[in-house]
Amino acid sequence: MIVQEPVKAAIWHCLENYDYLDAVFLSERLYAEVKTDDSLFILATAYYRSGKIDHAYHVLKDRPESSPQCRYLLGNCAYEMQKYSEAEEALLENRVTSSSSFDNVISDFGEQASFVLFLLAKILVKTERRAKAAEAFRKALKLNPFLWSCFVELCNLGEKPNPNSIFQLTGIENSMLNISNVENVTTHLDTPTFITPQQPVLNVSKHHLNTNICGTDETPLANSVCLSGFGLLPLSRIKPLRTRLEFSGSSPTFGQLACDSPDNFALSPVVSQTLTEVNDQHKSLAKKVRAHMGHLINRKEPHLQNSKPVFSQSSNTLSPSTPQAIDNIQSNVRRSSRLFSSHSYSVKENNKSPNRNKFVTPKSPSRKTKQRLTKCNINKTDTENAKNRMDKEKNETVTSVDVKASAISLSLNQQAIKQSAEGLMSLLRDMGRAYLHLSQFNCKLAIEEFSNLPNHHYKTSWVYSMIGLACFEMADYETSVKYFSEIHDREPYRIEHMDIYSSALWHLQKEVALSALAQDLINLNKNSSITWCVNGNCFSLHKEHDTAIKFLQRAVQVDPSCAYAYTLLGHEYIMTEELDKAISCFRNAIRINPRHYNAWFGIGTIYSKQERFTLAEIHYWKALCINPNNSVLMCHVGVVQHALKKTEKALNTFNAAINKDSKNPLCKFHRGSIYFAMGRHQEALKELEELKEIVPKESLVYYLIGKVHKKLGNTDLALMHFSWATDLDPKGASSQIREAFDPAVGRSTTDFELPNSPAAEECQSESNSVQQQDGYGGLPEDSDDSL
Questions:
Q1: Which regions are annotated as TPR repeats (predicted)?
Q2: How far apart are CA 769 and CA 381, in angstroms?
Q3: Distance between CA atoms of 677 and 382, rounded to whole angstroms?
């Protein structure tokens, strides 16, 4: 029969050192020998970590009534295999999903409950029960505020959690930080300490600072593994407590992270001490106590001054007043006083006895001898009692010093750990406020919050990517590219949000940079949907839409849950006039993420092209409700409203859009067109002249200015602007110019209606083509080359 504990330790040793083949082999041997929940969990964990998720799923499914650890692992396996109902069943044990079931999860899984609730919330999101999912996310955060990804998912649902109330340590110090009280130290002064998941790490005294701690905080093994005598435990599990808990001034804790500069990184003098320094102080204190006690012992008591030694020089027992005895007392404070008891001496042997191994029975002493012996015994008893009393007091004094020293050390560690955890909570609160603003598309506020982070956190790639995302939302593509290029140069292996980077490059028409990015990602990871999205954007920029569609289809195949890939594919189908396929892609994106407003916008674009303006307005408004700060969405709502003869509403919408973004050329162009259609030619001319300064190379602007001048009777200025429009776009403007001067060629210019005029239709078509690159970030404004 295999001894279990050494084998378990060997399995975890292999897992920690990424030797999954041996871990699987050993765990299979263990499970074949002993079929327990513990061995089953180890076997499933070995399968799971080695990438054999289906193996782990099947071995756990065969024993549904297993331990909570096995159920949680089964839920993870089923979730990754997209078997959401089985995952939920494993976690809840066939209970109905409700608030009471969440409470049952907490009671069943204990310290693991926060992670179980997090997994359950993700299952509820996949099964479109978002209200219950939000409740589960909140309960998980209440149990464990360190779950940042749980907060992110809650924000992505459209909820507005309060970071100031979520990221708090109130009520979790004992459960999460595992800080024990001082009383626990006194019970472990003379026993080795082994750390278990249920035992606090700080439950040690100064006697154990140099003891190797066998910590199972990284594995679910019990104490028995450490006590089994199996010596080949991994180094990561045998760490001196000193290396775990030492806090030096050169390594600031999270309590210092709220400071803006390294100069402000300073803890209080008590916290900044290391455990080594505290230990040295305790040792020096103990030495002083021992010296003081030795001084007390060397002092002669009044009743001992006239006393004589009870035994002669040949006696086997030392006199209590000899220096050697005092040294023995000082060297070992825990030794009992048995050396000085009345039974500790031997009677002198009778050398005349024939049998030298036997004691001779002493004769009855005389009266004089009895009196002398009685007097000596009284003096001897007093001396022994005094010595016993001093030994006891000394023992208690040194023991109390040890306890006090351990209590001080524990108090310092508690203070340092709490301060570090509170510093982390403060950082999470700041970052939580920033991310909450970003999820609500309050991009300026988000950038301000991120900018207020400490410099060493502000310059991390994650924060840079969030700021680049916010700039993309605001159509500030130059700044967005600046941040994303910094990330790519610093970490060329980082692939997250590179699809947004490629969209920003697409808007700026930077073909070389986009091509280089696409090639880098192809060499880096061909199994990521982001890689194929970037390549699709690259070929779309080169007007190779069929090739772009192939790459985006590949992105969808690699990751069917990528809403952004469906959105880009839908916009490419619009470019190839495959509207049915386009609307199917947009609906898939909405199915994956109902808050993906770009897909709502895409459906509105299709209905607008089909002149189904009422449906287009509904979908545009749906997108605008999700992102109320997007000026481009407002612009398209205004276009549709004007098409529905809601001219005043359209004008108000354009005014609100320009207030959001005063330099949005699309909004200014459409407002100028409405002014022209309403006969307010001077206002239209002023608007278009301002627009000409923003986009000096846009032919449509010069064409519309020429039409305004023609209406005003300024023929020379009209011809001049028509000529400039022809120079900028010979193919697109020639027929429009001929139509403007010869009504026989087309309809009369007096019938100019924005959605139905050739210029307006072309503008709308081009602006829609620009929108195909919208991703997670905001919808772009039109580029200089295509309004």
A1: 114-147, 461-494, 529-562, 563-596, 597-630, 665-698, 699-732
A2: 108
A3: 121
Structure tokens at 114: 């926060």
Least confident of 76-80, 175-179, 734-738, 758-762: 758-762
Distance between CA atoms of residues 154 and 293, nearest Å = 64
The amino acid occupying position 528 is: S
pLDDT tens digit string along 618-637? 999 999 999 998 888 999 99
Query: 35: which 2 tokens?
Result: 């079929």
Domain final residue, candidates 131, 155, 175: 175
CB 77 within 8 A of CB 53: yes
81 within some domain: yes
CA distance 231 to 673: 83
Report which residue type is found at 627: N
Instruction: State pTM to two decimals.
Output: 0.68
The answer as to whether 203 is a domain residue is yes
Single residue among 394, 428, 462 that ends a domain in this structure:
428
Quickly count: other Cβ atoms within 10 Å of residue 230's Cβ.
16
Q: Domain for residue 201, yes or no?
A: yes
Count CB atoms within 10 A of the CB of residue 363: 7
CA–CA separation, 265 and 254 (whole Å): 10
pLDDT tens, position by position, 124-154: 999 989 999 999 999 999 999 999 999 999 9
Q: In the chain, how many domains are there? A: 3
Q: Residue 3 in contact with residue 228, Cβ under 8 Å?
A: yes
Helix (H) or strand (E) holding 240: strand 238-240
Q: Are residues 14 and 119 in the same domain?
A: yes
Q: Which domain holds residue 33?
A: 4-175
